[in-house]
Specification:
Strand order of the largest sheet: 1-2-3
Strand content: 15-25%
Number of strands: 3
Number of helices: 3
Structural class: alpha+beta
CATH class of the domain at 2-38: Alpha Beta
Largest sheet: 3 strands, mixed
Distance between the termini: 47 Å
Shape: flat
CATH topology of the domain at 2-38: YefM-like fold
Oligomer: single chain
Length: 79
């Protein structure tokens, strides 16, 4: 696996992405510390996913759209 520094990516991001798109997996280093592994996406399956693939796996509860309690809303809003 190849390595590249964050600074090298900043200098030429297009070259970095072209290397990945060509199939190269690259380890990204910030100084001496590995921070990410970037690799090309796998081939996508042809066609669309079939409808109903997970039918019956989940049932929406009757209280799904009931407003949240005030204490939970306060937590979300940072109060």
């Amino acid at each position: 696996m190849s390595t590249i520094s964050v600074q090298e990516i900043q200098r030429n991001p297009a070259d970095f992405l072209h290397r990945v798109a060509a199939g190269e997996a690259i380890l990204v280093l910030d100084g001496q510390r590995a921070v990410a592994e970037v690799k090309p996406l796998g081939a996508r399956p042809a066609g669309q996913c079939p409808w109903g693939l997970a039918a019956g796996e989940f049932t929406v509860p009757d209280d799904f759209d009931v407003p949240l309690p005030d204490d939970v809303l306060n937590d979300f809003e940072g109060r």
